[in-house]
Design a protein that fits this description.
The complex is a heterodimer.
Chain A (H helix, E strand, L loop, with lengths): L3 H4 L3 E5 L8 E5 L2 E7 L5 E4 L8 E4 L2 E4 L20 E4 L3 E3 L3 H9 L4 H4 L16 E5 L4 E11 L10 E11 L2 E7 L7 E12 L2 E10 L6 H20 L6 E3 L11 H12 L6 E3 L3
Parallel strand pairs in A: 15-16
Antiparallel strand pairs in A: 1-6, 2-3, 3-4, 5-6, 7-14, 8-14, 9-10, 10-11, 11-12, 12-13, 13-14
Chain B lengths: L1 E4 L4 H13 L4 E4 L11 H6 L7 E4 L2 E3 L2 H12 L9 H30 L5 H24 L12 H11 L12 H11 L28
Parallel strand pairs in B: 1-2
Antiparallel strand pairs in B: 1-3, 3-4
The chains are: A alpha+beta, B alpha+beta.
The complex binds glutathione (GSH) and fe (ii) ion.
């Protein structure tokens, strides 16, 4: 592994709403850090030897970095749209590589088997063709036109619908997904997975949502998303090998999911290998 | 009946599972346990000063112990889930109902620590969890010798439902179930019950493949 390429990225380190002056001890890429609020209520993140780390607060979370971020945190324009509900789903720890947590999030094919009767159901297991690209102008991985039949796509859905998804990877351990918004067909619901790398094989996952849904209670929205993520957790903890395998040599198209191939290619291109292992496949 | 419920809580799942198995309809009142810690807020502390869930309300009755809730549901709708009047069986049901509290305090706390970052001495919690699992394994082996598939009888009782969730979710807290064949068999028997329901991390039994067809007398 090399940490260098990923060290200048922003990572989620806590919920802004839960900051306190006493601070919470956690870790970022192996380094113990403390996330607290200062006298003015601003977020403050301190590294191992007491050094003050960069901080920004966005999407309900506190973000920090062990290095010197070269650009601002990626933007999610929907976060500023009025009428959306913003949901802090809360942290879940997973004993897996942070990169594997993101890769699993990008994969639609597991829905009927892992999220049975919610995000998928047999016999509707087929993933129709969709488009995947690395958008050079923004340097992000995008998958679009992903269509899938879902028995209960969202709390706001009242039955089975064919849902359309777009997936976006704007940072090595973050993914943003856009999916059909049942009450507002012209808009997308936004569901994110922000992953805090504690170590190469251990991460804290902070899901966050920006939804149009005026009827479901906040607690129900949280529980819906936690249910889904907990179904993934046991799968993630049992993946072998723990680290995400990246092929150092020639890219041979595997049978793997297209988005996953693009994600791995993008990681490799940037040397984003904290949580990966380089192996010929 | 109103259940103060959290979808990821094994203790609340005991109640949902028992209700499903006995055909009792529950009104669910979701509690923002994580990240909101609503169970430690004024409204719920007024109902249960212990600051835990499940809480069951039925008219004047307010119950805050899952074992008591299981007994109430069974007595209401399906008394065959309670102990019969055989002294040994009655005692065994009671023994495992009490024992289930040790599973909560060990495997349950290990799970909260590993999953939701609850503080705790993870090594000690896992060690206590393993000790409890060994005791359960031994109990099930003894039952098998008596020709019984479940903890207190040859039919499932409230004792099985009280112990099943934290055991099935032990891997969430970093405790493997691989060393316990009797527990795995028992877990399959519980999951095979009619009207069994899942929770995240506990899967229904997948359809068994049909037996391979062996024709005798032919090459
Ligand atoms: N009274 C016990 C409590 C069960 C229990 O420990 N419930 C957990 C949730 S699964 C809880 O509420 N814990 C309180 C906390 O951890 O703050 C029972 O009903 O079995
Ligand atoms: Fe999933």
């Amino acid at each position: 592994m090399t940490m260098q390429a990923m060290i200048d990225e922003w990572y989620p380190v806590g919920l802004f709403s839960q900051l306190d002056a006493a601070g919470r001890g956690t870790a970022l890429m192996g380094e113990p850090i403390v996330v607290a609020s200062d006298a003015d209520g601003n977020a403050k993140v301190t590294g191992g030897n007491g050094r003050v780390l960069p901080v920004c607060v966005r999407y309900g979370h506190v973000w920090s970095s062990l290095g010197a971020p070269k650009k601002a945190l990626f933007s999610i324009p929907e976060a500023d749209q009025t009428g959306r509900r913003f949901v802090d789903v809360g942290v879940v720890r997973v004993r897996c590589s942070p990169l594997r947590a993101v890769e699993n999030f990008l994969d639609v094919a597991h829905f009927p088997f892992v999220h049975t009767d919610i995000l998928g159901a047999e016999p509707h297991t087929e993933v129709q063709n969709y488009k995947v690209e690395i958008r050079e102008d923004v340097d992000e991985v995008w998958a679009t036109q992903v269509k899938f039949y879902q028995p209960l796509a969202a709390k706001s859905a009242s039955g089975g619908i064919t849902t359309e998804y777009m997936y976006r990877v704007p940072a090595p351990t973050c993914s943003v997904l856009y999916k059909t918004c049942p009450p507002r067909p012209s808009e997308w619901d936004v569901i994110t997975l922000f992953v805090q790398p504690l170590a190469e094989d251990l991460c804290d996952v902070w899901p966050w949502m920006a939804l149009f849904d005026d009827t479901t209670s906040l607690t129900d929205l949280i529980h819906f998303q936690q249910t889904i993520f907990l179904q993934d957790r046991s799968i993630l903890e049992n993946q072998i090998p723990r680290l995400l395998p990246l092929d150092p040599g020639l890219e041979i198209p595997t049978r793997a999911d297209l988005t996953s191939v693009a994600y791995r290619r993008w990681l490799k291109r940037h040397n984003y290998t904290y949580g990966a292992q380089l192996v010929a496949q | 009946m109103k259940l103060y419920d959290y979808i990821l809580s094994p203790s609340c799942y005991k109640v949902r599972l028992m209700a499903a198995l006995t055909g009792v309809k529950l009104e669910l009142r979701p509690v923002d346990f994580h990240p909101g810690a609503e169970h430690r807020g004024p409204e719920l502390l007024a109902l249960n000063p212990a600051g835990s869930i499940p809480i069951l309300e039925d008219g004047d009755l307010l119950l805050t112990e899952s074992s008591a809730i299981l007994v109430y549901l069974a007595a209401h709708a399906a008394p065959e889930w309670l102990a019969s009047n055989k002294p040994e069986e009655a005692a065994r049901v009671q023994q495992w109902l009490s024992f289930s509290g040790r599973l909560t305090a060990s495997l349950g706390c290990a799970r909260l620590h590993e999953m939701l970052l609850r503080p705790g001495d993870i090594g000690a919690l896992q060690a206590q969890g393993i000790a409890a699992l060994r005791e359960l394994e031994a109990g099930l082996v003894e039952q098998a010798e008596r020709g019984m598939r479940f903890l207190a009888a040859d039919r499932p009782t409230v004792a099985d439902i009280a112990c099943f969730p934290y055991v099935a979710l032990a891997p969430d807290g970093g405790v493997s179930l691989d060393p316990y064949p009797a527990i795995r068999l028992w877990s399959r028997a519980v999951r095979a019950l009619d009207a069994f329901i899942e929770m995240p991390g506990i899967h229904r039994l997948h359809e068994l493949k049909p037996e391979p067809h062996i024709e005798l007398g032919k090459a």
